[in-house]
Amino acid sequence: MPTDQYPNHFPKQEQSFQPGLETEMQPQPEVIRNDYKGSGKLSNKVALITGGDSGIGRAVAVHYAREGAHVAIVYLTENEDAHITQQMIEEEGQQCLLIQGDIRDEIFCRNAVQQTVERFGKLHILVNNAAEQHPQEDIQTITKEQLSATFETNIFSMFYFTKAALNVMSENATIINTASVTAFKGNPTLLDYSSTKGAIISFTRALSQNLASKGIRVNAVAPGPIWTPLIPATFDKEKVSKFGQDTPLGRAGQPSEVAPAYVFLASKDSSYISGQTIHVNGGTVVNS
Fold first, then answer.
1. Which of 64, 75, 160, 193 is labelled catalytic?
2. Strands 70-75 and 96-100, how do they pair?
3. What's the start-to-end Cα distance of the chain, in Å?
4. Is residue 193 annotated as part of the catalytic site, yes or no?
5. Which residue stretches of the chain have pLDDT < 70?
6. Can you give the pLDDT at residue 50?
């Protein structure tokens, strides 16, 4: 149920472009709980996170830093958000590499992995997180351009980054893909987005089997409605104000409530888990 800490409604607001800016959101998303205590679960590890400048990606980056990891974050154009995330990581005593570019470009993805290894000497954790979504009431209005962009960002990039990362990853490395509750229950106005998220689940399951013999684990997190910049950058003011109220818990989640699942999947705590999905969705039962 809604609490004083986590309200069930937001001020009416919207942003004009994706993936959106965290600096313009009201209230600001909770990145990490004050009482979250790192315990060295990721000491001396190196993580690369796409969409790491804000939202879930920022929260994962800061949690990883508090657990002892150095972090490279990939982002599109949100320089201010990226530098704020970098500062938060450095305040945790860890190093942060900022990499700006378009993840729809396979050459850029390869270069991002190369830059990470050149800076930190290794790569242990890949988090494929960046995404875009464009609501349409009718499938007839989904253009070829929108369809291509959504698939290129949401699923093609995961292939690009994974292919590049596997050239430098070794046994005990982990890959974590951000899926969505829409992969399991659908969304009538997010047809192409939901389709990409379904593809991510299948990709995760198949890749986990492909890499099991190499000792590399692959899992996914399927968030429900989480308060991130993508929300005011996607929906109108009315929908934003009621965002998340249709969940059993009656509210949207915060990035701080999702990121610990990524810590778990990146750490030895999940050493016997691969090909699975953690559902952080406010209580929606998806039976899978």
1. 193
2. parallel
3. 24
4. yes
5. 1-4, 7-8, 288
6. 98
